Every structure is written in C-alpha cells, then in structure tokens.
Amino acid sequence: MSRLLLIVLPLLVLASIPLYLLVLKSPPPMPKLDLEEWWGPPELKQKQDTSIKPFEITFSETMVKELKERIKKRRPFAPPLEGVGFKYGFNSKQLDSWLKYWAEEYPFAERQKFLNQYPHFKTNIQGLNIHFMRITPKVPKGVEIVPLLLLHGWPGSVREFYEAIPHLTAVSKDRNFALEIIAPSLPGYGFSDAAVRPGLAAAEVAVIFKNLMARLGYKQYYVQGGDWGALIGSAMATFFPKEIIGFHSNMALTLSPAATFLEFVGALFPSLIVEPELANRLYPLSEKYSTLLEELGYMHIQATKPDTVGIGLTDSPAGLLAYILEKFSTWTNPDLRSKEDGGLSYRWTKDQLIDNLMLYWSTKSIVTSMRLYAESFSSRHLNLKLDEIQVQVPTWVLQAKYELAYQPPCILKLKYPKLVNASVIEDGGHFLAFELPEIFAKDVLKAIGEFRKLKNVKTEL
Amino acid sequence: MSKKTKNKSVNVNNLDKNEKSKTTKDSSKFKIVFGVFSKIISYLFVVKALFTIYGIYLVYVSLTNVPDLPKVDVNVRWGVDNNTHDTRIRPYRVIFSDAMESEIRALFEDYRLMERKIKSFKNTAWTYGVHSDAFAQFFSHWIFKYKFRERVKFLNKYDHFLTNIQGLDIHFVHVKPKADKDVKVVPLLLLHGWPGSVREFYEAIPLLTTPRPDYDFVFEVIAPSLPGFVFSEAPTRPGLDTYEMAIIMRNLMRRLGYTQYYIQGGDFGHMIGSHIATIFPSEVLGFHTNFPANTSKLSLLTWLLGGLLWPSYFGNGIEDRMYPLKDKLEFYLEETGYSHLQSTKPDTIGIVLTDSPVALGSYILDRFMIFTNHTNKFEDEGGIDKYYDFDKLLDNIMLYWVSGSITTSLRIYKETFAGSRLNNLAQVPTSVPTWALRLKYELFQHPDYMLRWKYTNLLGSTNLDYGGHFAAFERPKDFSDDVFKAVKAFRNFK
Known about the structure:
Chain A has 461 residues and is α/β, with parallel strands linked by helices. Chain A contains 19 helices and 9 strands. Helices cover 45% and strands 12% of the residues of chain A. In chain A, α11 crosses α12. In chain A, 47% of the residues are buried. The interface between A and B is large, with 62 and 64 residues. Chain B: It is a single-pass membrane protein.
C-alpha cells in the first residue's frame, strides 16, 4: 500500500500544479489605485490647471546649432571587429554616414513642419503636463466618430504613428465609424513631463491616461498599444473595464506562473499549446531564452541604473543614435544583426528614424524614459502581479513575425479571456505601426469593427 | 454474479466451502492482480530510481570531469599585420596633450552649460544609479581641480613600455626594486581588470619594490594593460577571450626574459592569472588572487544548493559573505546590468562612453563605488567622499579617455562570457601554489575547500574585515603585506 502511495503521491502533486495554477489559484486583488496621485511639484497642487492648451513642436535655432556642433565634436570610434555586423551592437562604421546626415542634411525646419502636421496639445494631469496629438476626421452624416487611444513604447514615440494615422482616420463606406486618434507621449517621454518623485510605473501611467481621456471628455474608448503601450493599455483594460470597451495589442504577452507552466507543457507537447506552423515562434524554449538573454541587456541596466547609463545619452548625440537605432535594427528582424549596416534602410528613411531621435534629443528625455523600466520592475510594481488579473474587456492581438516574443491564444486567454482574435502576419517586427502602417491600420480597424458588433449585441441584450 | 448463483444451485451441501473458496478465489485473484500490479509499480519505481541515479551520476561527471586543455597555440596572431615580428621593447610615455585637454574641456563646457541635465530623485541615494548631485561634485572637481599636467607627470613616475606580442602592441609598466645585495629580486606580474587599469597598482608598487624586514626577497613589478585596455592594442577579429589573454601575458613575460614568475590578479586579472597557472604551470611560481572565486559550474551549483540546505556548513567560515542566498541573488540581479549589456552589445554602449566624458566618468564611478562597498548605494554621496580621492579615480578614467579604449575594453565581457572556455578551464586543476586574499565587500567569495578543487595547493587565505573589490587601489598596504606573506609561503613550499 505504501509503495502505491510512493508512486501516486508524487503524481498527485504533479497533477495538482496545473490544477492549482489554472483553476484553483485565486487572482491577486485589484490594486488600490489613487486616481489623484500627484506626480508634479507639490507647490502646484493648490492651483490645478485643467485647461487644454494647443502645443507646437519647435526645433529652436539654439538647440539645432548646439546639436550640430556637438556632432562635429564627436570622438573617433573604435572600429568594429571583422565580420560581426551588428552582433556586438551598433556597428561604428555606420556612425559617420548617420552623423553626417544628421548634422548636414537632415532638414530641421522641414521636419518640424512635418511633425506639426497633426494638432498637438498639452494638459496637466495629476501634476504633469501631458503632451498628446488629437486627430479628428471629418465625417459625413451617419458615420460615428469613435475615440482610439494610441500608446507608444520605448525607444519609440508618437512619431511611430504618423504614417498609420491617415489610414486609421480614413472614412470608408465599408464601415459606419471613423477613428478619432488620441496619441499621447508617455510621462517622461518626449514633450510629456516626467514625475518628480519615484513610483510612476506602468500601473500609474494607466491611471494618468484614464484621467487624460476623462479630461478630453471621453466616457468610453478603445485602446491600442505596443511595447510599453501594450503593457499600459493592458493595465488600463484591467483597471477600467467600464471606460475601455476594446483593447488592441501588437505585443501581447502574459508572464504569469500559469502562462510559464503552459509554455513548459508545450515544450513537451507543442500540439497542445500552439499551432504547428507557429510552433517555431515559441519553441524550442532554449532558443527563445537564449535570444532573450542576448537582447535584454539594455532592459537589465535601465531597470537598475537608469541615471548612470542615461547621462551619456543626454550628452552624446552619437551615443543616443547608436543606442536607439540598434533597437530599430534588431527588433525589426533578428537576422539584421548579421548585416554591417543593421539593415536600417530596410523599412525606414533616415528622416523617419531621426525624427524619432529628435523627440528624445530635443527634450533630453532619455533618462526619464528609461526610469519607466526601473519603476515597473521594482518589487512594489511586480508584486501587483498584474499578469495574474484577468482583463474583462474584448481584446484583439496582432502578432507580427519578428516580434520579440510570441504566445499562442490558449496562453493569452489566461490573461485575456475575452480574446476575440489573434491576427498572425508573416511580416513585420516590433515597431509594427511604424513599419507596416497600412497593415497595422487595417487590423486595428477590423478589430474595432468587431468590438462594436460585440458592444451592440451586448446593448441589445 | 451469475457464477455465484450457479455455484449455489450446483452444490447445496458444499455451499459454505464453495462460498469460502469462491471468496478465497476472488480475494486471492484480487491479491494476485494487486501483487502483480504492485510488482510492476515497484519495478517501475526501481527503474525510475536507477534512471535518476544514473542521471545524477552523469551530471556529477560532467561537473567534475577534467576536460582536456584546449590546444595551446602560443603563436596565434591578433594584429592587422601578421608578418612583422618586432621584438623590441620600446619606452613609452603617457601623454596628456594640449589638444586632448582643450577637446575634453570643450566637452565639459557643453555638458556644464546644458539646460536640461539629469536631475535624480531626491532621497533615493544611488538606487537609480549615480545620483546627479554626487556626480556634479565629481564633475566639478574634474573641471576645476584635476590638474592635467601634474597628473600625467604622476602617471609617468614609473617607466612605461610597449612591445609587440603576437601582433599586438602590449603596454606595461616595469618597476625595478631599490637595489639591495642581500635581497633576492623576484618578478611579479600584476594583472588588473575592468574598469581598472595599471593605475590601480600605483600606491602598492613602492611597497612591493622596497625591501622589508623579515623578508629575503623583493619584487620587480611588471604591470601590463590587458589587450584592448588603455595603451595595449586591441585585436581586429573576435576570439580574444581571457584564455588567449593568458597566452599573450605569458609571452610578454618571456619577452622580458622571465621563464618563472609570480602572478597577482583580481577581477579579470584573476581569471587570466588562473589560466596562466593552468596552461603553463611550470612557469608560474605562485599565484595570489584578491578575487578568490572558482568559476566552475560545480562551484555555482554547490553555492546554490549549500545556500538552500546548510549555509553555515557550505560557507565554511565565510558564510556571512556568501549567504543568505536570496539576498545574494537579489544583489547580483540588481548589480549585473552593466555586465549583461557588455556581454551582449559592448559596441553600442561603447559608442556612448567614447563620445562623452561625463558618460565615461559616471559609468566607471558607479562601478568603483558599488564594487568597493555595495552599501554605498544607500548613501547620498555614494561613498565618493570616503574611499578614494577624486584625483585617483580620475587618473584611471583619464587613461581610458586618452586611449579611446573603453569600447575595446568592454569586448572582454562578450568574448569571455559568450563562450564555454571559461567553465572548461575552471574544471582543470592546477598545482601552482596559490593564496587567496578576501576583502570584506569583494563581490564573489568562495571558501577554501571550493578553491582547492581548482587550486590544489592553496597554501592559505587571508580574510579582512574591511575593503572591497579594488584591493590594491583601496588598501595598498594590506594588499602588499599579503602579497609578501603569500610569496614567502610559496618560496617555502616544496
């Protein structure tokens, strides 16, 4: 009898793990959110300004002159090792052509005009001046204007959406709605103020954006995000299911214990977890983990020493360019690491990529942008265990071929039980809206179309 | 069921007996089935146990077997020109040119006048990295108090040289002891690490090269810059890991006429020194390390399991420096971001640090303060006012700056940690007499028994209740005392 127990007991324990993780484990409590938490200078709390002021991006003459001079003062860079392409990081042989272009050919005045083509605004939310673009289409009668909050990530900016916005806001006879876009800069990024004290992590940014949308008069809206935008959007959908009526993500990931468990089950029995054509996006796990190890050094240092690594990025344009463009190369397609030029011209012009750099350089916001990592990977924020709280909002994910990580629907559903669809495309990488604006916009519009159908069904009931 | 009725109907007299035999038959059938079942289970159990034991054996073997040394090619070439074999030893001087000074001062001004400089959070000490207030103090000293002309004179107080080894110009400082007829002069190779340099040894060198009572020997010091660091040339192709550096350093010593010598090393210097002692044991008279770590997988596993099972036993006297495990793991996670980045994308961060003096200054300052004492992270000043005067720290930073070598120095991380040679060599023991110096806040510390797996003739160890990673730099007297002590033991060991 005891021998039987020796076999049965461990088996029972083994069986109970999934039972516990997938069925019995109760989710952590919804975090207590302070919707009025103040992030700005305490003196300003007495006289809160709720106005929405128009804003214009300016590349001042002084700033441009100093930038050009600083680029000219650049030091000789160590040549790359033979044959390594971008495998040791940004290939310094590329720097001269990039820096020469930036200092001598990038048309600052023209690009400033380009960046101002959409209306920009600022409004003070919880002590921080939050910058955003708002693009409202002109619609004929019978077409409903529907608000969409577009959230960027790191090292991106609102610039990522410029090519997608015309497609997103287009009026079409195929749909009875048109999107109004609200695209803010994350706090500490670009033209949005940064917090003056610690604590502003992804969950707190979600609160800020909820308040932003409320300030702008929206009671219900859709949210789209990638990178940090996906994490913040996911937090918003978790906390505010009444306001957010649909969530679209192009970087859907859930890192709960149950998700990790299922990934390991799939390592043994892939067919249980993932469709065979997509198995190589997740398996073998050893490859996935070694790739993540290879690519997450930046995340490790930004999550622990943002102020150390940031100081040079505010001082050296060459440094900022290399640090940020390395991501635009590798995260677009990992194969680009073997190219000497990192394949940076594969998807974008120099102007497009430098536009994005200018939003970091002209605002000197690189350090405050990196602090989001330190705040969000703090034990305080991790202990909120947001990945273990389900999102009760209809969700749609767009999964590009070269996105940094992939999870199949059965794993995503642990976090997003109302997953309506997972669009899998055989192209594109991390900066999807920036890379493939038409495909991106088409999928977002399709998603919102479906969300609206669900909403109508609901209201009919 | 039907059988029973059948039996019943067949023989009424023998009913009880039949019943009994039926039940006995049934129960014995059940017993047989159960017996067979449990036998299968127990066989399966035994088989499972055997497999597990075999598995553990395989793991044990892989962790403890002594792999063959990789083939040693002492002539592998690393330079651009692989044809000339220049064996001259050329005198060298550190130069802080006027052009360099005006260039760096222009960059200082740019940063000083920058409008939107970093402003660190109040009351967070150094938990987000170097605090902007502390850095401002350091930076201000660099601009207004660091006297370039004086410092370069100081750096040239020892004789510098260059010599070409395997295609790379290797820079080194060579200091001969103050002559004394009765005292034997023994060669000592001093190996620095990252983000250090030969500067780390400047205060210790006079102590090492001066005869002292109770000792019948004195040191002649050879302190090179590792390839790719400061004035030592960097390779043009990948592959120059610590193993190859060991060969270069050994060939350097041979170039200088030394076929037997002592080695002292910390940080990467410890790894390189260990490799030399492993690959060329007959040439190394003794090895002193202030970074006493066994880098094998077995040691790592022992440390982890020991922490879970029995820290005081596995810690063997230094458990307060190795455990609690959870605290240590959190500490390593918190402090190894720089290593993770440099082991994967050295050239990217290298570009930032090459182009900006404040970048280089704060990045190196960060590591110096945390490696010296990790509790500095919770001090507003980060301890910058406590351990080293600013000139000392800036001398080291300036050596990286004027040589433009920060990027090539970072590559040692990718070359070393991306391959498997580090672990393989760790599993090859060496009988070269060894001594371990443990300062309190050194980052990795292993007890003597663990060191003996690799250094079979570990003659002793010194545990100090103070001090950190940069032993020679921070505690030149304790450092030199211990090197003398160790080499005395080496000389008496037969």
